[in-house]
Amino acid sequence: MNTSTKSLFLTGGTGYIGGGILRLFLKNNWNVTCAVRDISKAKSLQDLGAKLVEGAIEDRNFLLKESANHDAIIHTAEKRGDQNFTIDSCKVLLESAQLTAKTKRCSFIFCSGCLVNGDNDIVRDEFVRCDQPLEKVAFKIPLEDLIVNTKRENLRTSVIRPSWVYGHNNSNFMNDYLRYCKEKNEVITYEKDNNMCFVHVDDVASYFFLVATSDVDGIFNATDNNYITSKAFCDGLAKYLNTNVVSKEFDGLFKYCLMLNQKILTKRANEIGWKPVYANFLDNIEKVYKELYV
After folding, report:
1. Closest by Cα among 164, 191, 167, 168 to 252
2. Hey, what domains does the chain have and what are their CATH numbers?
3. 240 burial type by CB count under 10 A (0-12 exposed, 13-18 middle, 19+ buried)
4. 4: pLDDT confidence band, cut at 50, 70 and 90?
5. Which residues is 219 bridged to in the sheet?
6. Is the pTM of this model over 0.90?
7. Hey, which end of the chain has fewer CB within 10 Å, N or C?
8. DSSP string over 97-139
9. How far apart are CA 71 and CA 207, in angstroms?
10. Mean pLDDT to the nearest integer, 88-109
């Protein structure tokens, strides 16, 4: 490895958010090592220039060995419904970062999510704590506390909470919803008019990069700072698609975004110089749909 080049150890590189992070770090001339379960299914990452290491993230020895001595560790991998996977792997990677910090500076960043900000009408930035997150992610609050309270010389520990992420043509909650609306020629909503928060996947990647390369730590909300009502969102989408808004059940997981009421802001973006390229979803609908059907 080129000793003059920074190195990143990444989990979840085959995923939506992790893939964007991987590409941005490679673009900025970092060496990226990505943990994967099956190298044969991740050849595209290798073709981009990433080093792939095959193993199970549940394997403590594998994780400690491969994550050692990197300048940054970013953990985005999750197993839906498996809290122990997230907690245990986070603790191992945090331990690895502490060991690396004995000899050089190391940043550890955990990818959390907006659901820890709960479901209410309170405006929440990084300094407004939510003690009533959604039940399914309540375990992340003490985990986040553990991460940001782990202090030692040369170690920076951070948690980034992306809002509802969209962009490009990958399959995810929001992109699948946007495709449905176009292909079924209807925009689905729910009766209650909630507030919604968004961020483009490229802007999420830049948030991670700037945190990793800045002298900062703690909690960060990756959001475009333009929360909008679900009515404004659906009306704007229907206007662009020249269709109608209908209230009905929707099988996709994006229904949680429509059902939850969240007003999330990031005040800490100024500390790292982060400005989203996609500053407002409604202003970028045409561009978003072009990305979806590339």
Report:
1. 164
2. 7-164+198-223 (3.40.50.720)
3. middle
4. low
5. 159
6. yes
7. C
8. HHHHTTTS-EEEEEE--GGGG-SSS-EE-TTS--SS--GGGTT
9. 17
10. 97
